[in-house]
Design goal:
There is one protein chain. 35% of the residues lie in helices and 28% in strands. By secondary structure, it is of the alpha/beta class. It folds into 3 domains: 152 residues, Rossmann fold (3-Layer(aba) Sandwich); 63 residues, no CATH class; 44 residues. A 6-stranded mixed beta sheet has the order 5-6-7-3-8-9, sandwiched between helices. The protein has a 3-stranded antiparallel beta sheet with strand order 2-1-4, covered by helices on one side. It has a 3-stranded antiparallel beta sheet with strand order 11-10-12. The structure holds adenosine-5'-diphosphate and magnesium ion.
Length: 286
Amino acid sequence: MAQPAIAVQDLRKSYDGNTALGGISFEVAEGEVFGLLGPNGAGKTTTVEILEGYRTRDAGDVTVLGFDPGEAPRAFRERIGVVLQQSELVSNLTVRELLRIFAGYYSQRRDVDEVLDLVGLADKKNARIKTLSGGQRRRVDLAVALVGDPDLVFLDEPTTGFDPAARRTAWDMIRSLRSLGKTILLTTHYLDEAQQLADRVAVIRSGAIVRLGTPEELIGAGGPVEIRFRRNGEPIVIETEEPTRALHELTSQALADGRELEQLEVRRPTLEDVYLELVQEEEGEG
Ligand SMILES: Nc1ncnc2c1ncn2[C@@H]1O[C@H](COP(=O)(O)OP(=O)(O)O)[C@@H](O)[C@H]1O
Ligand SMILES: [Mg+2]
């Protein structure tokens, strides 16, 4: 098997004695879109910034593109693209000027105008940063991350605060990055975003990974299937781990009795059900 783009083993981090990461482990394959999904304060930014080499770790093994980000050599910096969660941009520069400055940091860089096209900012290239909307600034952030033609892109809550249309556009951009073969580590607290974009998702809460798998696997692990129908107008709900058997029994009986199972429905838990359950567990413990 090829070496993973990111390998994290038992990563730990505390701030003033408060545990932010209690020993997390995961791997991200080359070309994969990996989602870290969790509520505010779960430890997503801490994880990402350790992988980027911007924060130190207390313990654990971390390898990113074959490097230890704690040593953050220049060869490593050149191969990652970073979108900080809240970045301050140089507001008097034009979009194109800013991008040219960042392009100068990289030996292997993409054409500035090509990148502006890719993120949908071609018509804003001569606009000053300070005149841009919030959504347009996030596109500038992404353009900055891409201009060095990185192999691996970190996106920390790339669409937080976006209106629905801007989110769709951002999702399309992230998909086009994926189709360029980039490895992407994405954090989000939006479940639908993880489900839309990520090949695999790690659900993180209170510094621990509580679920890890493809969106389909997370749903599959989500517990019993619900069978619903009505009898004499009264709703009946059956929860079962064996829907095939339960349905067979129900329908055979109904056929034998010459009854119809009114409004028969079989419902699998959605990723949202699974996620809400995890968040509620957290509230219950807190
Ligand atoms: N620089 C810091 N100093 C002290 N505590 C921090 C710092 N950064 C994060 N934390 C704490 O660590 C926990 C995880 O934070 P963070 O990684 O930012 O979570 P997320 O990005 O998932 O919202 C939170 O409890 C947060 O308050
Ligand atoms: Mg964060």
